[in-house]
C-alpha cells in the first residue's frame, strides 16, 4: 500500500491521479475543503448531482451558479459547503473533485485526515 503525504492542492492533485492507495493531508485549509466534500457526500445524491452539474459552469459564472443552486435545492445550510467545494473545484479541477466523491473515502483518526482509495 503506497501512502503519500500532501501539503498543498498541487500535491493532492498529483496524488489523486497517481497510484497512491492512501493520501495523508497535512494542510489545515485543504482539510477544511475536503471536509466540505465529505459533508456534501452525506447530504445525498441530489446535492452531489447539483455540484457535478454546476462544475462546468464555474469558469463562466465565477462560481455563483453553484451556491445559488445548492441553496435552492438544499436550503441555506448548503452555502458554506458549496463555497468550499467551489474553491477546491477551481483549484484542482472538477474531474478531480468528482473522483474524490466517487473513488475515495475520508478517514479522520486522532486529528490526521486521510483519503483512502475505495476497494473495487
From TrEMBL:
The keyword Transmembrane helix applies. Keywords: Membrane, Transmembrane, Transmembrane helix. The chain crosses the membrane at residues 43-66, 78-101. The keyword Transmembrane applies. It comes from the Bacteria. This is Uncharacterized protein. It comes from Allochromatium humboldtianum.
Amino acid at each position: 500500500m503506497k501512502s503519500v503525504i500532501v501539503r498543498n492542492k498541487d500535491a493532492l492533485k498529483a496524488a489523486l491521479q497517481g497510484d497512491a492507495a492512501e493520501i495523508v493531508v497535512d494542510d489545515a485549509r485543504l482539510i477544511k475543503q475536503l471536509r466540505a466534500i465529505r459533508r456534501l457526500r452525506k447530504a445525498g445524491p441530489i446535492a452531489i448531482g447539483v455540484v457535478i452539474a454546476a462544475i462546468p459552469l464555474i469558469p463562466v459564472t465565477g462560481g455563483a451558479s453553484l451556491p445559488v443552486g445548492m441553496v435552492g435545492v438544499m436550503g441555506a445550510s448548503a452555502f458554506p459547503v458549496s463555497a468550499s467545494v467551489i474553491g477546491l473545484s477551481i483549484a484542482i479541477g472538477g474531474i478531480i473533485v468528482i473522483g474524490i466523491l466517487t473513488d475515495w473515502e475520508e478517514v479522520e483518526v486522532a486529528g490526521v485526515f486521510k483519503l483512502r482509495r475505495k476497494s473495487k
